[in-house]
Protein: ADP-ribosylhydrolase ARH3
Organism: Nothobranchius furzeri
Amino acid sequence: MAMTAVRAAAAAGVPASLSRFRGALVAAVLGDCIGGEFEGAEEVPMESVMQHLNGLDDETKGNGILEYSDDTAMTRCVVQSLLSRAGFDEHDLAHRFAKEYSASPGRGYGSGVVQVLKKLSSPQINDVYQPARDQFNGRGSFGNGGAMRAAPFALAFPDLAHVKKVARLGAMLTHSCSLGYNGAVLQALAVHLSLQGALALPHQFISRLITEMEEVESEEAALRDARILKEAEKPFCERLHRIRDLMDRSKVSIEEVISELGNGIAALHSVPTAIFCVLHCLQPQESFPESYSGLERTIAYSLALGGDTDTIACMAGAIAGAHYGIEAIPQSWIRCCEGADDADVNAKWLHVLYHKSPQGGRSETEDKSENGTEKKTRAE
Ligand code: R7I
Ligand code: MG
């Protein structure tokens, strides 16, 4: 590992240090806000990326000038729900998604998910998973909307199996196709392993993700969806293998990354891409200033891929932030982004929740089955 990576890892401190929690949640917001500039662009010259990033140092620009989109709006709902319920509660989370959407519908939500959010706002709703199941002729969405908001699940619980479970359930409120919710599981796994310091050994990191996703994608529903959508038998595993091949190459062009991994709105075409951005930028790159931290490189590189830049940078930011910690993030970037300060405060609460018990919080079902009453640890 290069010295810069060693230094950054040291700054982030021991596994699951507070710095890593703050880095993950804040860098996710930054990726969303900063990446919004190039969303949908087919080609993004590196000069345009650098111009945009250099502009963030301009002190005359107002605080929070870059607004967050649905990525952060929904991530905030996940954080607030986990904190107020001290664990996963699907009804509370569904209610928050619906309320947030009706309070601020102009955040750039995916066109399909809007129908789900409207149905979830109905007081008559019993099964909060049904509206998502109705999407796309009953097959459910494979968009990246579940994955873009998955980071808080990885930061709330120390137990990996529990993280996988709640990341999946949290995504299924809007994305019932396995290619949607398994993208969320993969993103949560990547953030969780990064939080433990696993990116210090990049090849082992990717091998571990493959092992975990092999199991996840062996489920009948996943195999069936992959068949229907004419994807590889285990689509996320196949992409992770492609990442491993790309890592072993001495030079990889932006065009090759896009053609191998994608840069689109589907979870399959964006979650593996975000993971690759982080791995690729562990080492210094010629295209970026030497002064750049690995986290700055990761965000810059994500933008240069074009396509769904805000969401790819948001997901890459969460994984990279959990590795490098808050110290790797420039203050000027934080100042420019709406919601970054809130994310920093929330990260401290998630750190408390994570370290509170072996489970790091409990689900509503678990709470009710034990004492029959609902628990509330932190009122808003
Ligand atoms: O996944 P989702 O929440 O969108 C997230 C993205 C992020 O980039 C955000 O920043 C925002 O810009 O949008 O929203 P969905 O509407 O569930 O899915 C996004 C899009 O993926 C849909 O509008 C469709 O174009 C496409 N899509 C599908 N198309 C055909 N068949 C998702 N699932 C399907 C499908 O099954
Ligand atoms: Mg997006």
Observations:
- Residues 69-71, 108, 110-113, 136, 139, 141-145, 148, 177, 265, 308, 310-311 surround inosine diphosphate ribose (ligand 1) (CB under 6 Å).
- The longest helix spans residues 18-35.
